[in-house]
Amino acid sequence: MVDENRRETLKIFIGATAALGIGALTTPLVGSLINVNELKAKTAYGSIEVVLCESVDNCPEEYSVPIDELRKGPKFVLLKKGTMAIPAVFGLVNVGGKEYPVAYNTVCTHFGCPVNPSGGKYLIGFSCPCHGSQFIICTNPNGCDGHAFLEAYVSAGPAPRSLRPIKVAVKGDRVYALRAEI
Ligand code: FES
Q: SS3 of 169, please?
């Protein structure tokens, strides 16, 4: 299942990367490729926020992963919304014995290759197979050198900025993705 998702994602990456590359030059074209009603606002990173669910109470299960599954290791999920498909990795970050559910858009911020999670059972970061960028998840509640708590920031390689975050919320025994940056 995961492999199938990865193959599908690879195809989407090629399209998405091309679309975003064009979009950076011609904003109106982005509007015709992406349904603007699904977009919320530009974020501080210059990325765009896609609202998957307004609230965890009306969020479909396809945007969620059982916490128990995340205790075995990070899980890849393709978040589909309208014509978009956002590749995401859900995981748990262990900070002093406390588990924090997280999710990130797995498109590398360099040239868009899919990044791989690292850390085994608990997520500690990501690496990009294309040009060697490394991303580390900040586990200091007070921040890490200008980066926010749980931000997956660049520790090595050419990537210009942190991985785009996905806002999550827990309901019952599942972790739901509410908003994703693309
Ligand atoms: S695309 Fe990830 S380091 Fe270049």
A: strand
pLDDT tens per residue, range 11-54 = 333 333 333 333 332 222 233 334 444 444 455 556 889 999 99
Q: What are phi and psi of 80, to 5 degrees?
A: -105, 135
Distance between CA atoms of residues 22 and 95, nearest Å: 40
Domain ranges of the chain: 2-34, 49-181
Q: Among 111, 134, 161, 164, name the best residue to mutate to test ligand 1's pocket (greatest count of ligand atoms within 8 A of Cβ).
A: 111
What global pTM score does this model have?
0.78
**Integer angstrom CA distances of residue 5 from 75, 89, 135, 154:** 11, 12, 22, 26
| Closest of 166, 74, 86, 58 to residue 119, by C-alpha | 74
CATH class of segment(s) 49-181: mainly beta
